[in-house]
């Protein structure tokens, strides 16, 4: 389907309440990861990744990362402002006012990935505030242990209900095993346990799509080669086909008919009976 130039957020909203087609998350995720990986290689953290900041091309196939207003060039691990990223896509270390680095982008991409699969945000806390957002996260991935909790945070783990992690199969039954595995690695509570963008690009969920694309390209090229060497058979004159124009969500009419016709009442040669 060809779509106008838009944001990923609008594209996902258009598919609600159903998740988008199965190929879309795989193809789009690879493009997002490729862009974020380029930034990370150059020690740049975007810090505000969300569907509203992902542009979609006119044909609905290409993505571009936008809005780098909050991006920063950083070292390996420094304390930056916590006023970044829309709440639903904000990593736990940012919510806990802890030091953070490139893994915050991986968390945000994981949130976008899950949203593409399920058709709605994964960590959609109903109330604003860091504690409410953390509770929403813990209700899905489980409450961390004291050993996993960042020591520099002023918020303590005993302030939260002890949730058990929900199986990804229960949360995303439509996702493949590879998709669930990659998502679980992207949404790890501890930043150092989170998969990197580079390793994500080498995950079977992504590489299987690349292999499939190569096979499809080879098949298409073979079809074009065969078509070029085929001579179309001579056929008798055929009447022109009727060209249909989209005029409304429920009506298709011939191109030659630009006005609304009267009700379809036809008369037979011998009388006025309707046909």
UniProtKB/TrEMBL annotation:
The keyword Kinase applies. Residues 213-222 have a biased composition (Acidic residues). GO terms for molecular function: ATP binding; protein serine/threonine kinase activity. Residues 200-275 are annotated as: Disordered. Signal peptide: none annotated. Pfam families: Pkinase. Keywords: ATP-binding, Kinase, Nucleotide-binding, Serine/threonine-protein kinase, Transferase. This is Cyclin-dependent kinase 4.
């Amino acid at each position: 389907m060809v779509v106008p130039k838009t944001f990923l957020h609008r594209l996902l909203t258009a598919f609600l309440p159903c998740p988008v087609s199965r190929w879309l998350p795989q193809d789009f995720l690879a493009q997002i990861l490729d862009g974020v990986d380029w930034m990370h290689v150059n020690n740049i953290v975007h810090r505000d990744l969300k569907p509203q900041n992902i542009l979609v091309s006119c044909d609905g196939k290409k993505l571009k990362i936008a809005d780098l207003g909050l991006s920063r060039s950083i070292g390996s691990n420094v304390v930056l402002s916590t006023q970044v990223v829309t709440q639903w896509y904000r990593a736990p270390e940012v919510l806990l006012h802890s030091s953070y680095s490139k893994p915050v982008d991986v968390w945000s991409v994981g949130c976008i990935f899950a949203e593409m699969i399920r058709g709605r945000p994964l960590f959609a806390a109903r109330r604003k505030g860091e504690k409410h957002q953390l509770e929403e996260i813990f209700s899905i991935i489980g409450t961390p242990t004291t050993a996993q909790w960042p020591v520099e945070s002023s918020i303590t783990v005993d302030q939260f209900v002890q949730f058990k992690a929900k199986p990804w199969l229960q949360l995303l039954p439509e996702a493949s095993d590879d998709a669930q595995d990659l998502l679980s690695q992207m949404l790890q509570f501890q930043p150092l346990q989170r998969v990197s963008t580079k390793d994500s690009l080498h995950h079977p969920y992504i590489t299987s799509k690349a292999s499939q694309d190569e096979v499809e390209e080879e098949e298409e090229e073979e079809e074009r080669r065969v078509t070029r060497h085929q001579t179309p058979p001579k056929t008798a004159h055929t009447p022109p086909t009727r060209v249909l124009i989209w005029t409304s969500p429920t009506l298709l009419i011939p191109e030659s008919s630009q006005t609304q016709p009267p009700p379809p009442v036809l008369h037979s040669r011998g009388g006025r009976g309707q046909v």
